[in-house]
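_Per-residue structure_
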Amino acid sequence: MISEPEVRQLLIDSCAVTSEAERRILAELQSPEFITLLVHIAVDADDYEGDAPMQASYFLTKALPSLTRPHEAELLKLLHTAQGYAGSVALVLGRMKSLEAKPFIAKAVADGWWPEHFFQEALSCYENA
């Protein structure tokens, strides 16, 4: 598995240089341990800030809901605190059909939260339930 510092750098690199960094991150998304690391980085408990938490949340939207579901409680807390990337967190929760997140996501759609397309896609995940 890739080390946390290396993952952080890949996440930062994926903002501007998508090919190699993105390929390496996507290749790891089937690993429960890697998902745990992405959640840890997204939550930013170590207060690194920067682009890594935002990018970690974005890549979590690409993971299987079965792999993100064990982190539902952490992601629910993050949904309320993520500065600028709550839409990605909402989409992760929507894809796992989190019942606790649905009212928040619906309100975010009604209130026109940015980026609207993430919240709308998250809410649409419940329609197929």
User: Anything to note?
Assistant: The chain has a mean pLDDT of 94. The radius of gyration is 14 Å.
